[in-house]
Amino acid sequence: MRFVRRRLTAVVASLSIAGGIAGLPAHADTGSPPSTPAPTSDPDATPTATREPTDEPTGEPTDEPTGQPTEQPTTDPTTPPPEEPTSEPPSEPTEDPTPTEDPTPDPTPTPDPTPTPPPPEPPPEDPTEDPTEDPTVPPPEEPTDDPTSEPPSEPSEPPSEPSEPPSEPSEPPSEPTGDPTPTQPPTGDPGTGPTDEPPPQPTTPPDGDMQIPDELPDDPDEAYQAALDGAQTVAVAEAQRLLARVAGELDSAQRSYAEARAAADAARASAKKARRELTIAEQEVARTEREIAELRARTERTRQELGAVAREAYKGTGMATLGVVLSAETPAQLTDRYVGMRTLMRSGDSTLGEMAVHEAELRDALSRLEGQRDRRKRRADEAAEAREAKEQAAQQARTAHETVDEKSALVTSALQAAEDARLQDYRRYMRLLDESTAIGERLASLDYGPGYGTGSFVLPGTGAPTSQYGPRLHPILGYVKVHTGLDFGRGDGAIHAADSGTVVEATWNDAYGYMVIVDHGTWRGQRLTTMYAHQSSLGVTVGQRVRKGQVIGEVGSTGYSTGPHLHFEVRLDGRHTDPAPWISDAPSPS
């Protein structure tokens, strides 16, 4: 017994030197408790975890599991499992899923129905897309687009231009059939004179929209000149010039709007991307902050455990440790207490190691958090800039849309003005025809005196011919107009008598302005007269005899005229005819 006591004293001393702990029970070992033996699965037990799949479409139920997986089967382990029903083999999935009673195929071949494919599995989410948000931290709400930032709806189409051309005259206007040969002066043979057919009549302009070319000239001045040729009023040409100008402005505004709309779409996409990247950065910061909080809590718990161990070690003395050991009643009890104290010491060392690891992880997380916060700030700045750019682009798109609306309204107004001018021109043209008819009737009933004409002409004006005789479809006005004479440009401004004769009219006419009509006598049995219209003033009087080439007036723009010119007509028995054969070889006035 004395030997045992000395042995115990040596053991207690060694424990005290190692920093023994007093007052701790022998069962304070913090090691892992003894593990309970894992249940071993019986290989003979009936498997119930999964069922054997079957492709049998007949819908026969399979055997229900016994529901007692731990019960030992009474059969021999080598006994095979219950046989599957063999009455009907499972059909292939490509066969008709509906079983038939008669296995004999129908003599009439019928196509097998296409088996319904199983629903496709949803594709895996792309990891490069928006990351999965942490369920514990709600992500910031996605800011909805400012309703005012959306570009306005597409502008209404500009007023459509009439697409149907004016109706052509059912019958082309007839022209005189007895014109003299252009290369020879009239010979005075009455047998070859023109027939007594009535002059051609113009077609009535179609009711409705004005006929506008499919493509207006880019240059408004070109549109002006195109409309001016053959028009009765300058308003038609002015309306066409305005229409060409505003149509060009509308086209430019529409292009600007398309560019602004594309820029707004791009800015909206950029802002959306910036918001998404900002959300990702905020989620990264939130995850790291949670990780840091967990690491700090874990470190604090470890620090508290170490503090408890240190306090116990500080309070413990060699005598207290000796008392713990000496209180053991058996050698086995002594050994258990010794092992427990050693285990507790090793646990303290392990806790110190864990605390060092936690502190290292915490430092790394704090470093990552700093970088993530910097990245979040950059993303926030980028999102703010993108949002501002989006708002500016949207405002530019709205402004461009308003410009398109304004130009569309101007085009509509210009179209209406052009239509009004066209109708006014048509009314003036009909008045001009009435005046021409009245002149012809007066000339046909006139009691002429002796004629003084020679039958050969000189050019009545020095300007170049600008508008020929005859009917034609006006490209702007949209109806057939009959030009009853031949127009000459201003030239030197003097108007000359084409042949010798007597002035039978020298007056003002609402349609022809200041005009002069000269009688040249009889040609081929018909009375030949010439008319000189739109003069700026009258240089002769009625009854005055004039010589061939004599100046009888000045070129002007009176009456229904769009500019200074000479309107020259040749009439036979009061009916107008083409002047071209009469002046094709005519010399200039001397």
UniProtKB/TrEMBL annotation:
Q: Which InterPro entries match?
A: Cell_wall_metabolism_enzyme, Dup_hybrid_motif, M23ase_b-sheet_dom
User: Where is the signal peptide, in residue numbers?
Assistant: 1-28
Recorded hits in CDD domains, A to Z, give: M23_peptidase
Acidic residues bias: start-end ranges: 123-133
Quick one: where's region Disordered?
Answer: 22-228, 369-400
Keyword list (alphabetical) reads:
Coiled coil, Signal
- Coiled-coil-forming residues are 236-312
M23ase beta-sheet core domain ranges (all copies) = 482-579
A molecular-function term among this protein's GO annotations: metalloendopeptidase activity
- Write out the transmembrane intervals: none
Basic and acidic residues bias locations? 369-391
Q: Which Gene3D superfamilies match?
A: 6.10.250.3150, Glucose Permease (Domain IIA) (2.70.70.10)
What ranges does the record list as Low complexity composition bias? 28-50, 64-77
Q: Where is the composition biased (Pro residues)?
A: 78-92, 100-122, 149-175, 196-205
Q: What is this protein called?
A: Peptidase M23-like protein
The record lists the organism as: Haloactinopolyspora alba
